Every structure is written in C-alpha cells, then in structure tokens.
Amino acid sequence: MSISQEEMRPSPEAMLKAAQAEESNGDRGKLRIFLGYAAGVGKTYTMLEAARQRKLEGRDVVAAYVESHGRAETDALLEGLEIIPKAQREYQGVLLPELDIDAALARKPQIVLVDELAHTNIPGSRHEKRWQDIEELLAAGIDVYTTVNVQHFESLNDIVTQITGVAVRETVPDSILDRAAEVKLVDIPPEELLQRLHQGKVYVPAQAAWAAQKFFRHGNLIALRELSLRRTAARVDDEMRSYMETRAIPGPWPVTERLLVCASGSPFSEKLIRTTRRLAEELKAQWVTVYIETPSLAKQQQENRERVWHDLRLAESLGAEVATITASSVPEAVIDYATRHNVTRIVVGKPTKSRWREILRPPIVDQIIRLSGAIQVHVVSISGVSKSTVSSRTSKSKKTVPLYEYLTSLVLVAAATALSALVMPFLSPTNMVMIYMLAVVVAAVLLSLKPAILTAALGVLAFDFFFVAPRWNFSVNDTEYIFTFFGLFIVGTVISTLVAKGKERTEAMRERELQTESLYYLSRDLAASVDMESVMAAVLKNISETLNAKLAILVPCGELMNISTISKSLTLDEKELAVADWSYRNRQPAGAGTETLGSAELLCLPLHTTARFLGVLSVKLENKSDYRSPPHRRLLDAFVTQISLAMERVQLAQQAEQAQVLQARETLERALLNSISHDLRTPLVSIIGALSSLRDKNLQMDDKRRQDLLSGAWDEAERLNRFVGNLLDMTRLEAGELRINKEPCDVQDLIGCALAALDQKLGNRDVSVKLSEGLPFVSMDMVLMTQVLVNLIDNALKYSPSDSSIEIMAQIEANHLIIAVFDHGPGIPEPELKRIFDKFYRLPVPEGVNGTGLGLSICKGIVEAHDGNIWAENRSGGGLKIALQLSL
C-alpha cells in the first residue's frame, strides 16, 4: 500500500504546535530531571556523573545546591566542580542552608545543579517552593539538572498516600515533568535499595529504622517503582507521538478526548481533580476544571470560598484549563459548557446523601447523567475522606441565620393574629388566611428563606389554634380546613423560595453590574486621557473607588522601577519595591495572594500588551483573602488589560508626535540650509573674488579700483559677521543661555547708542526722535536692548524709500516704557503681521536689499527675556510701526 505525498505532510496543527514549542523554549534554559521512586536509588549520584561528563565536554557547570547526605562516594563526585555557597536563612532561631538563587543568577553558568526539586523553601524566601526557583533559573536561559521522586508529583499524591499510608506534603506540578527537555529514570531493584538502607547509605540509623517500618516496605517500593516506570513510559509515549505528528508518520490516531470536572469547595474536590488528571493522562486528553457559581453559592462563607480557590489553583498547577461560570442551575451550566467546548467525558463524585434526601432533592450527579446525552459521565467513589472531616467542613460552610430574623418571624405572626382578631367579627375564618399570607410575603421580602418558611408554618398553627373551631386547641372538626392549612403552608413556602431566589439573583446581578460599571467608567476615563498623567489619575480614582484599595503604578527607568502614581496613604518600602522589580523582570504576578514572595503586603501585576511590558500595578486590598478571590483577580486582570492598552496608546501617540516633530525639524533644517547657504555663499564668493584679484600680480589696476575691491570685501565681511552673529544669538536664545544683566539705563542714551552704531548706514536719512519729558531710568540690559533698536532701525532702513524719514518715539504708558520705530515703507499685509517675528521669515524685498530673516526674531527673544512684549502694526498713512514694551 503506497502513501501519497499529501499523506506524508505534517498537518498544520502539528507544525503550529512544534513552532510554538520551539518559540516558547527559544530563550529558556533546558530542564533535565533525574527521576527515582524513592530516596537512595542514586539520583544525586547519577546527576553528578552527568555533570562531570558535561564539564569534560567543555560546558560551564556549577553546583548551586547538592545534598549528599554525608555519602563519601557522592562527595567525591563534587570534587572539581565549582560550588556556589548556600544561603543561610534563620528559621525559629536556627540557621538553615538554602539555595542562593541570586548568586546563581549572577554567576549565570551554562548548567546549574539544583537537588531536591520538591523542597519547600524556608518562610521568607523569594519563592515558596524550590521548583519556582528553578523556573526563574530556566527563564534566565540557564540549563538546570535536578532530582525528584515520583511520589512528589501532585497528580499521584492520593495514590501514594493510599499505597504507603504516608501523606507526602511536598509536591510539584506535573507540568514541570511535561516541560522537561529530558527525563532520566534512575532505577535499582527494591531488594538492592533495602540493602542500601540497612547499610546506612540512605539515612542515619535512627531514621533508617523508622523508614523501614513506615515507608521502605517491599510492597511499597514495588508499587512506587511501577509508578515511576509508568510515568516515564507515558512521557516517552508523548515524545513518540509528537515525533510522529511533526514528521507525518502514518499511524492509528485516536480521537481527541476532552474531560471536565467541577470544583465545589467540598472535601472531595481534590480527589476528583487528581483522578481527572490521571484519567486525562491515560487518555492523552485535555481537561478543564469548572466552578459554577450560583446565586445561593455566591453567599458562601469565606472558609468554603477559600477552598474553592485552592481547588482551582490545584487544578491549574496540574495542567488544567480553569473556568468560572455564573448560572442558576449547576447541572444545566455543566452540560451547556461541555456542549460548547466539545467535552467528551464528565467526571463527577458519587453521591453521599441518604436515599430519602435524594428523593426530595435529586443529586446533581443524577441530573447531569439525565442531561448528558452523548457525553460520557464517570462517577468516582469519594469515600477516602473521613466523615468527621466532612461534617466539620460542612458545618463550617453552612451559613447561620441571625437570631433576630426568627424573632421577627414570631412578631409578624403575632401581628397577623392580632389583626385577624380585630376583623374576626367582619370576616369568615377562610378569608383571614389572606392576613397570614400577607405576613409570609412580608417575611419573604424582609427576611431570609428559613425565617420566611417558619413564618408560614407558625401562621398555619396560629390560624388553627385561634380561629378554627374548636378554638384554643389544634384539633379540627371541619376537614376542609386541612386543605386550607396545606394551601397556606405550600403557597407560603413557594412564595418564600421564589422571593429568596429572586433576591439572590438580584444581588448577583448587582455585583456583576458593579463590576461592569467599574470597567466602563475606567475605560471611559482612560479613553479621554491624552497623556500619561491623566491615565494615572484615572487609574488611581477608579480602582480605589471600585475595590476600596490602595495602589501604586511603577514604570521602568533604566535599571530601577520608579513610582509613577501612588495612593496618598500608601508607602512602598524596599521589600515591596523589590517584589515589583521581580514581577516586572520575570513577567509574572508576585506578592500577596501568589506563590512567589507571598509574604509581601501588596499584589504586583505586570502591565503588558502583546508588544511590550510597560510597568507594574501594585495593589493593597483591605481583606487579605480577596487576593486569592477569582472575582477580584478577574476584575484586576481586566483592569490591568485596560491600563496597559491605555499606557501603550499614550506612548504610541507620544512617539508619533515625536516622529512628526522630527520630520518637521528635518524639513526646517533642509529649508534652513537652503536659506542660509545663499546668504553664506554670496559674501564668501565676493570676498574670495576681491582677494584673488588683489593677489594676482599680473592684473594691473589703479588705486581707485584697488580701494573699491577692498571696500567691497570689507562690506561683505561685515555682512557675513552680522549673519553669523545673528545665528549665534538665535542659538543662545533657543538654548536659554542668554544672560540678562539688568541695570538702570537712560532711554536717551539707549537711542543714541543705536543711532551711532548705524551712522554709516543712515547717511543723509532724516531720523526724528521724540521723547516724552521726564523719562525715568529703566532697568534693562543696555547692550542687548541697543542691539534690539539697531535691528529695528536697520529693518526700517531696508524696507522704506531712501528719501523717506525714520521716526523713533519713547514714552511712558501705564507704568510701562514704550519705544516705537516708524517708517514710510509699503507696510505688511495684515495676515503676515504675526509672522514677521518667526525665524527665517522674509517678505518679498526690493532688489538690492539683503537679510537673513533673523533680526526681528532676535529682537523678540531679547524683549521677552526682559519680560516685555513686542509687536508690529501698519500705520494709517502708510508705513510700518514696530513697538516694544518694558516694565518700569
């Protein structure tokens, strides 16, 4: 049978899966696990042998934490390997050795040895578990060799307990084994291991005797060995199937299974979750853990809610997809979710209620089976938890009704009885039932379900005792009243139940509405924010009001994290800043409510989008249990997403604005070069031409011709000097380097100095100066203001006829000095008046008039540096007026 080329091609799903795996492991280190079934099989010894082999191959190998337990042959293998000193941490007054993760990260070898993967760190360490330390080392690009026994994997915890009778407290998620690059099984026969135990090569004699009695029994070791072999075989099978998929090797592909299990916070949930994990592993299937939150469950006491959060975290650590759903019916919600997500099998627990209670209220298991249709339902026995534990936890989770509600029900029945006694002469006993019905309705509206039902029951008894013949006892002569009693009680109970459910649903909807409303207001405020300050203000306002929390947002600045915004009453110490820094650098939540640096007071959530990481949101909630609350975490995650998008939008807008500024600057620079190149080249060409003529000894010229060339070169050199001076002055103005040395100056001297500087240019031009009498001394920089007047008068000379006069006026108006220069030129079009003070702006000029367009710009800069004002306006009779104003 031949196989076509199409059949030999890998499927797109397999290629995508392989590409995603390669991309996710691109920058990460590789994890090699040495797996055994019990202590003493030689995991550490084998790990050290492999490490020495890698060192001989030229790899950089460092031992960060190796526990030899005093075995000489193991210590011998450590010789020649670089060892990172262990950190000493104090616990209950005793110094204990611990992995120094900071030293390992700073050393950054190619391979680091970290023994005992399932170890629990000393309280106060950065991470709660050692496997989290290893995850951080892997994220830093360091390969890790580690050791672990099979009984420490979370999914096998209850099986190991059942086999050995010893509950293993230190566990690691199964996903660690799934993500390992290589798993090496270290195996020896149980008989040889027991021999090593008796020889003292596993534990010291006192511990060895206890271990031989409790754990190291021959049957236990055989069972544990089988578990390790099966777990390793399952991983090998996964690798084989992945190899076949990526290379399109034909074979019998099984139908994909998908399993679902519910978390309810009951004592049996953990066992159901672990059972589902094992079943999913056997079936090579995906699995999901769902928590259905009904209106009645939404009011559970905190103890049970924490158990639900614990169950969800356990399922997530075992590799499950976790979902929380709000619905009114648990069975319908489970079947609806299973139908929409292609779930093929549902795992449920066996009912524990008595048969008569099942008749009154069918178990959820039966309802799921009835609605399941084509979906298979696996019913698991849950008899492993003791009844005392179940009863204690159940009693804790039951919600107690306040005593005053029961007293209120008694008052309502008494009031109904009193009112019935008043209207008894006017109504028949049957009609008085409505008064008691009214009392039941009031109780249902004001009180909870149980007091409302009590009101209905007491109402029946009171009606029978006080108003049904024979009165003053509970006997009934007329059997028709029995139906009245049952009707009153049943209708009252139904009304109470419906009203209670309606109140619960209303409260649940109100909670959802508040969350939606808070997200809406935050989104609205963030959408209206145009800069980072307004974004921070919107975040501070909305999150503080919604969660009644204190918060801070930290953004990276070089190697440090700077506080961008913070609540008024919140302070961050070095520890909290270090947690935020770790969260940002490792791209993971940290702090309160997490398993990383959980002793911190704040929860740190990294702010990120698909393109970049922007900072960290640190939140301090009033109730510590809210840190682990799924509703609070979902709301915080939504807030983080909104904040990240807003921050990225502002940053992108700023980058776009900067790009536009750079583009405008480049355009201006090109225009500047084009403008000044002519103004620089023209005088230089004239000067070079005159000097070359004067240097030419073969060129005969008279003294007049020679003098004309020298005069022309001198004029062009002065022109070039003024141009360069103007450029330098403009540069100093824009850079803020212009120094103003104010001192009292005479206005008449100021005008005289300006006219003297322009004496040659003025020639025979008529200049009229009008000064008000009694002009005071004005505080100004004499040199700079002289330059201003020189530029204004020079501008008037250029743009007015040579036979016209120039007028200068100085006067005092409203405690200000006004100096104005008038000419009789053509003036300036009105739209251009405000632009004449811009850099390099020039109007079409008469032929022979040169300039750079910087003179008036320099005047404006100098006047504004004196806290003054300058403006231009056309004269009514023709010409232009440029005036400046200085404070006295």
SSE arrangement:
Blueprint: H1 5-8, H2 12-24, E1 31-36, H3 43-56, E2 61-65, H4 72-78, E3 82-83, E4 87-91, E5 94-98, H5 101-107, E6 111-114, H6 130-139, E7 143-149, H7 157-164, H8 174-179, E8 182-185, H9 190-198, H10 205-214, H11 218-246, E9 258-262, H12 269-283, E10 286-293, H13 302-317, E11 321-326, H14 330-340, E12 345-349, H15 355-360, H16 364-371, E13 376-380, H17 387-397, H18 403-423, H19 429-446, H20 449-467, H21 480-527, H22 532-547, E14 550-557, E15 560-566, H23 574-586, E16 590-591, E17 603-608, E18 613-620, H24 630-695, H25 703-735, E19 743-745, H26 747-757, H27 759-762, E20 767-771, E21 778-780, H28 782-798, E22 806-813, E23 816-822, H29 855-865, E24 869-874, E25 880-887
Parallel strand pairs: 1-7, 1-8, 2-3, 2-6, 6-7, 9-10, 9-12, 10-11, 12-13, 20-22
Antiparallel strand pairs: 4-5, 14-15, 14-18, 16-17, 17-18, 19-21, 22-23, 23-25, 24-25
